[in-house]
Design a protein that fits this description.
Elements lengths: L1 E12 L2 E12 L3 E5 L6 H9 L6 E6 L2 E2 L5 H7 L1 E4 L11 H13 L10 H18 L14 H14 L4 E5 L7 H14 L4 E5 L3 H7 L2 E6 L2 E6 L1 H6 L1 H7 L4
Parallel strand pairs: 3-8, 3-9, 6-7, 7-8
Antiparallel strand pairs: 1-2, 1-4, 4-5, 9-10
Bound molecules: adenosine-5'-triphosphate (ATP) and magnesium ion (MG).
Amino acid sequence: MAILRTENLTVRFGALTAVDRVTLEIQAGTVHSIIGPNGAGKTTLFNCITGEVRPASGRVFFLDRDITGLTVYQRAQLGIGRSFQRTNIFPNLTVFENVWLAAFARIRPSSFPGPVPRHRLSELKDRVYEVLGEVGLADRAGYRAAELSHGDQRLLEVAIALGLSPKLLMLDEPTAGLSPEETRLMMGVIKQLARRYTILLIEHKIHLVMEVSETISVMHFGRLIAQGPPEEIQKNPAVQEAYLGRR
Ligand SMILES: Nc1ncnc2c1ncn2[C@@H]1O[C@H](COP(=O)(O)OP(=O)(O)OP(=O)(O)O)[C@@H](O)[C@H]1O
Ligand SMILES: [Mg+2]
């Protein structure tokens, strides 16, 4: 079953077509990666799926519902969670508080500010610890986010996205700026998460993409130029030329 579908999605910035008629299907329960050279339009495609950027034309469907007109917040409520290419956390809050806020946004009653039932708050706390466990940060719950290593901050960002209990987890270059050691840790976490979540991943480290993905889509100048399982993508001559810069 397709959890997410885009239909002829096009995003323009002035004269630049950053995303060019992209039609894509993400199957539930898979890791689906988007690769492509710098400036190919990967992050813009993400932004268009999450609602941060409006398409010039085309549509986005989530669980068969047309969400093209919905806000970022409405999409998050429906179950689209994402992490950003550049770390996006509250540095002065604790690790626990960062995730708690995301989880709270999910259960927040429409009457808020108003009383939140006590049992909901205790469920929330359990959920935060569950999520911190999923990314391996449970023992650092009380640290200020600013005190964490860069690698742990990136893991915290994944935890924040998970705090929303997403049906689709979108990760934009989660290993950007990480050491080889931290990269291995992050990929281990992603592999574990893949058992429970549908993941849409943007990642430049091609060997990692090959290792974790069921499906890979390749973007180049805003267009999808190839899609398939890792073995096929690796052999595809158009991909080799566009992405790897050689024939
Ligand atoms: N808000 C914006 N205004 C104008 N141009 C933009 C904006 N956001 C992105 N672009 C341009 O759109 C194109 C696609 O950018 P995008 O960030 O989506 O690429 P990317 O594939 O994520 O690249 P990278 O791998 O470097 O992160 C680039 O040419 C970029 O300069
Ligand atoms: Mg990007």
